[in-house]
Amino acid sequence: MADVHSLVRSAWNENIHLEVCVGSDLPLVRCDRVGLQNAVLNLLFNARDAMPDGGLISVHASVSENSNQVDLRVEDHGIGMTSETMVRAFDLFFTTKGDGLGGVGLPMVKRFVEESGGSIDLESILGSGTVVTLKLPAMR
């Protein structure tokens, strides 16, 4: 997460604030490190794009209640998604950014998480923001 934080800070302007909270005694997750970094970067850049006037993006990593997985939650307080957009959010090449400007980020994140043996949850409220939670298997 420290590497991701450094990369993101250099690519953002001052009106976007990033909060990273990693729980204590967090176990390692069973996944590719670079794949995880790419997934988190995709989520962070989507969150940034959803907040054209700036704001706070938070990343929280914690052990889930069942302790067999690590939950990595990325939350923004941006424009949010309509229910129609949420239904298609993981469809390859679906985008709300205009013709030819995206549609691969969220499908890549979902594929990475599922190939790692995990799952992904998406919650969004139009006008209030979005929360994406990656649930990755923990190594014990």
Structure description:
Helix 2 links the parallel strand 1 (16-22) and strand 2 (55-63). The chain is an alpha+beta fold and 140 residues long. The radius of gyration is 15 Å and the shape is globular. 24% of the residues are buried. The protein has one domain: 2-Layer Sandwich (Heat Shock Protein 90). Helix 2 (33-49) runs antiparallel to helix 4. Strands 1-2-3-5-4 form a five-stranded mixed beta sheet, with helices on one face. Helices cover 31% and strands 29% of the residues.
CATH class: Alpha Beta
Residue share in helix: 25-40%
> How many domains in all?
1
Question: How do the helices and strands follow one another from N- to C-terminus?
Answer: HEHEEHHEE
The CATH homologous superfamily corresponds to: Histidine kinase-like ATPase, C-terminal domain
Instruction: Please give the radius of gyration in angstroms.
Output: 15 Å
Low-confidence stretches: none
Beta content? 25-35%
Tally of individual helices: 4
Number of strands: 5
The CATH topology is what?
Heat Shock Protein 90
The biggest beta sheet reads:
5 strands, mixed
Morphology: globular
Label the CATH architecture.
2-Layer Sandwich
Top keywords for this entry?
alpha+beta, Heat Shock Protein 90, single chain, 140 residues
Can I get a quick summary?
With 140 residues, the protein is an alpha+beta fold.
Map the helices and strands:
Elements: H1 2-11, E1 16-22, H2 33-49, E2 55-63, E3 69-76, H3 83-88, H4 105-115, E4 119-125, E5 129-137
Helix pairs in contact: 2-4
